[in-house]
């Protein structure tokens, strides 16, 4: 009976959404929302013996050799030598899903579905539990599961059937170096808390009990010295297939799930970031709000930069609110490190660099940088990397716009906050700076400046706006030949303006140009949305020429992107947008070698009548066929059509 009382208590506790990634609406079933994660698994003897072992945390779920998707049953499965692990260390950066996996273990055990080898599971939430200065192991058990009708000491007699879980071990914050002579072997003996826990880790106390420990990579080094015969499991995040699955589990409406995932799949930056479970939750939370309030995502008020800022606000929630100066200085140094790394193609940073920058703050560092522990036999210090490359690029962009009282100097040297140097380097040869430049545009929008100030407490300077505007206008003037119409022919311009998402800025940037000319471009859904936004705010646009361009969208029934001759979906489902329609609002539209076929002619004909401003349409090297042309003629007969020239 007391076993079932314990199970029921654990199930109730585990179903409470206390984690950062918990949806703010009514708590769903953990089973219905849990999405399988990708992990690497190693025994203690192998740990650290190969490059890229535990602690890399780069979110490369699809590229890591030996990575596999896992359910919680794999945590205590026998390893290659046939031995069932007694100690499992679950490693992952903040937001990777460690606590969610622990909750899943407890719910499965509590319901009697899995982990039935254990009669009792005791979970110590190291981040939340209020622990006494002195306690026996029996005291801890009573505190974990109050109301037991049998003494904790009696429960602990059958060691093999007990699992202890320490969630967020790094939060305990005490020294793991304790004299062996002072360790305990009696679960009823009251000792200083660190000695009681060390006795459990060192196996002088309940040596046959099992342990599951979740920890961040930055705290792994000291823990390794305490354990023996442990298995390491590192969470790498969501694979490509699991990202899609997560969206469908999050949204109750399949149509909305499809629309939201198409939106993200068409944005390479967002899609890549969604390997991190908490980023997938962030994106889904924002898109759910957008889909509830609007009919489509074309007017989505949250750009990629907006989602990154929301993610940052969630990471920093309730942290250092009493000392904003510490947080501001930390972010300044973090952004400086990120920017210098981007300039030097550097993603790994030595421990000395972290300390010299003043970033070695245990309350903040693990949320942004992951630690890679040296391999056995190596004598160098730990190295650190940002949780994801796009996060490093985001903070690099912040470096140029965060207000600072003086020069911020990192261990890598002095880096000037010269926006023009960044833009010119990108224009000439450094195309790898594209994402950083895109975030730069997003950060200086009025919405971003206000959000960063009110929500995160960071001051963003608007001085860069004028430099960005002048650069955009100048780069395209240089590409246009004298005497010819001024045209925009770089797709990234539309990405930058879409990222800023300000009507007045787009009007100013494009106001001097009259032509849009794109060649051999694969237009993803994100590209089409960026184009649509800019064309709607481009008053002087007279001519659009697309040569060899194809329109792509993501088909949920297929594994690959689909190239369609036209926009193959035109608002047939709620939330979808007709991205092609703004193209017809110009005077002249040329679609050359764009793989147009008979199937798109009915939509073309309808658009001819809906856009009376279109005077010239050219459909060159297409396969319309006689029946396609007949459909076009139906459109020409509609009274609203004002087309003068059809080629």
TrEMBL record:
It holds the Pfam family NACHT. It is found in: Inflammasome. One of its GO terms (cellular component) is cytosol. Residues 86-289 form the NACHT domain. The keyword Ubl conjugation applies. Residues 1-30, 43-65 are annotated as: Disordered. SMART domains: LRR_RI. InterPro entries: LRR_dom_sf, NACHT_NTPase, NLRP_HD2, NLRP_innate_immun_reg, NOD1/2_WH, P-loop_NTPase. GO terms for molecular function: ATP binding. The keyword Electron transport does not apply. Residues 1-20 have a biased composition (Basic and acidic residues). Keywords: ATP-binding, Cytoplasm, Inflammasome, Inflammatory response, Nucleotide-binding, Repeat, Ubl conjugation. GO terms for biological process: inflammatory response; innate immune response. PANTHER family: NACHT, LRR AND PYD DOMAINS-CONTAINING PROTEIN 12, NACHT, LRR AND PYD DOMAINS-CONTAINING PROTEIN 3. This is NLRP3 protein. It comes from Rhodinocichla rosea.
């Amino acid at each position: 009976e007391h076993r079932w009382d314990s199970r029921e208590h654990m199930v109730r506790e585990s179903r409470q959404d206390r984690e950062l990634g918990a949806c703010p609406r009514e708590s769903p079933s953990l089973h219905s929302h849990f999405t399988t994660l990708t992990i690497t698994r190693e025994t203690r003897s192998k740990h650290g013996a190969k490059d890229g072992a535990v602690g890399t945390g780069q979110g490369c779920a699809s590229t890591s050799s030996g990575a596999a998707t896992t359910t919680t049953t794999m945590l205590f499965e026998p390893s290659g030598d046939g031995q069932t692990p007694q100690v499992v260390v679950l490693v992952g950066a903040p937001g990777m899903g460690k606590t969610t996996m622990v909750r899943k273990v407890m719910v499965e055990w509590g319901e009697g579905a899995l982990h039935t080898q254990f009669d009792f599971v005791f979970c110590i939430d190291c981040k939340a539990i209020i622990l006494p200065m002195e306690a026996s192991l029996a005291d801890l058990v009573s505190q974990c599961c109050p109301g037991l009708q049998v003494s904790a000491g009696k429960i602990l007699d059958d060691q093999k059937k007990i699992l202890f879980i320490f969630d967020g071990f790094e939060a305990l914050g005490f020294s793991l170096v304790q004299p062996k002579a002072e360790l305990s072997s009696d679960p009823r003996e009251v000792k200083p808390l660190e000695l009681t826990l060390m006795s459990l880790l060192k196996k002088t106390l309940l040596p046959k009990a099992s342990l599951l420990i979740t920890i961040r990579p930055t705290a792994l080094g000291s823990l390794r010295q305490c354990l023996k015969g442990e298995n390491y499991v590192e969470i790498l995040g969501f694979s490509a297939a699991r990202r899609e699955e997560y969206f469908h589990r999050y949204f109750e409406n399949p149509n909305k799930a499809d629309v939201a995932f198409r939106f993200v799949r068409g944005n390479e930056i967002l899609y890549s970031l969604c390997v991190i479970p908490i980023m997938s939750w962030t994106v889904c939370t924002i898109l759910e709000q957008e889909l509830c309030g609007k009919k489509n995502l074309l007017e989505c008020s949250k750009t990629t930069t907006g989602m990154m800022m929301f993610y940052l606000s969630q990471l920093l929630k309730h942290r250092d609110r009493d000392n904003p100066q510490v947080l501001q200085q930390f972010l300044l140094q973090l952004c400086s490190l990120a920017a210098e790394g981007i300039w030097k193609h550097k993603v790994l940073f030595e421990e000395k660099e972290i300390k010299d920058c003043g970033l070695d703050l245990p309350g903040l560092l693990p949320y942004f940088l992951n630690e890679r522990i040296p391999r056995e036999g190596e004598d160098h210090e730990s190295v650190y990397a940002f949780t994801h490359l796009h996060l490093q690029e985001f903070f690099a962009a912040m470096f140029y716009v965060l207000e600072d009282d003086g020069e911020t100097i990192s261990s890598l040297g002095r880096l000037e906050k010269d926006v023009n140097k960044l833009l010119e380097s990108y224009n000439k040869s450094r195309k790898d700076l594209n994402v950083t430049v895109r975030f730069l545009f997003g950060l200086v929008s009025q919405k971003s400046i206000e959000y960063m100030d009110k929500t995160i407490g960071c001051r963003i300077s608007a001085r860069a706006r004028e430099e960005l505007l002048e650069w955009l206008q100048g780069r395209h003037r240089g590409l246009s030949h004298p005497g010819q119409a001024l045209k925009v022919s770089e797709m990234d311009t539309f990405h930058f303006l879409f990222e800023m998402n300000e009507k007045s800025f787009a009007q100013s940037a494009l106001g001097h140009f009259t032509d849009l000319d794109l060649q051999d471009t694969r237009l993803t859904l994100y590209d089409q949305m960026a184009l649509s936004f800019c064309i709607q705010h481009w008053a002087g646009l007279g001519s659009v020429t697309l040569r060899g361009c194809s329109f792509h969208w993501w088909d949920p029934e297929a594994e690959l992107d689909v190239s369609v001759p036209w926009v193959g979906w035109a608002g047939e489902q709620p939330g979808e947008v007709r991205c092609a329609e703004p193209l017809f609002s110009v005077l002249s539209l040329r679609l050359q070698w764009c793989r147009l076929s008979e199937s798109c002619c009915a939509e073309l004909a309808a658009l001819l009548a809906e856009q009376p401003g279109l005077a010239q349409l050219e459909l060159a090297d297409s396969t319309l066929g006689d029946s396609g042309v007949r459909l076009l003629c139906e459109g020409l007969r509609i009274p609203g059509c004002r087309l003068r020239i059809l080629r």
